[in-house]
From TrEMBL:
Gene3D superfamilies: GntR ligand-binding domain-like, Winged helix-like DNA-binding domain superfamily/Winged helix DNA-binding domain. InterPro entries: GntR_C, TF_FadR/GntR_C, Tscrpt_reg_HTH_GntR, WH-like_DNA-bd_sf, WH_DNA-bd_sf. It comes from the Bacteria. Residues 135-158 are annotated as: Disordered. GO terms for molecular function: DNA binding; DNA-binding transcription factor activity. This is GntR family transcriptional regulator. It comes from Herbiconiux sp. A18JL235. PANTHER family: GLUCONATE OPERON TRANSCRIPTIONAL REPRESSOR, TRANSCRIPTIONAL REGULATOR, GNTR FAMILY. Keywords: DNA-binding, Transcription, Transcription regulation.
Amino acid sequence: MTSTEANPPPVVRELRTVSAVDAVGDDLRRRMFAGELVGGELLKEAVVAAEYGVSRSTAKAAIEKLTAEGLLERSANRSARVPRLTAADVHDIYRTRLRLESSALRELAAARRAPREAAEANARVRAAGAAVGGAGVAGTAGEPGSAGRAPSVDGEGASGAVVGGARAVGTAGGPGSAIASVEPDMRFHAALVEAIGSERLERMYGSLVGEARLCMVQVQGRSLLAVDRIADEHDEILRRLAAGDADGAVEVLTVHLTRASERLEAALDA
């Protein structure tokens, strides 16, 4: 046995350097998506600086970054605040999402491709639903008899992806919180767009995801629909993609997002 075989070289792991601005911004974003920072709550630069032990200029830069993402709002000479999204905001966000996601589904259906990443995300949606007894945030009912049927994913059976994905929920709010379904739900839809491989489409879609997630978190306590119904409809989209049924996939998506939008709008108007 050679010395190299006895003492293999250590694995070099690549680390991403995170600036103080990014670190503060990332944690503030996490707190918003976890429901810890609620709509209307003020974020004062001095308070943020003290909480994180950073300079006021760093706190200001982090707040400005989140403002640019649409996750905070700020008027002249006033502190930033977590926005209270309106029904009109939700309608516009979901209308734009539908257009972008429909385009992605047509390309995927042409290739008969149901992305594995989307199936794995949906397994986490189901796991989150099981943890809270099926309580949900916003979605639509699946087609009758669709529950429990796993679609083919990228040419293989989905059972492996579903079982693997269900082992860990790991979402904001904890596995026992209704908020836990929000992150994998959004991840499912993002995975469909990312599977196209268009950086420009991803950027356009990414600008909507934060606001949509923030909205869902703000109304999560209303438990608008059962998470398992959301997951059923996700599975139906994947089945139609694998079958090459572009019109069918878009039809399911349209019902899915339209009903979600309507229920979120109604909750915000209540």
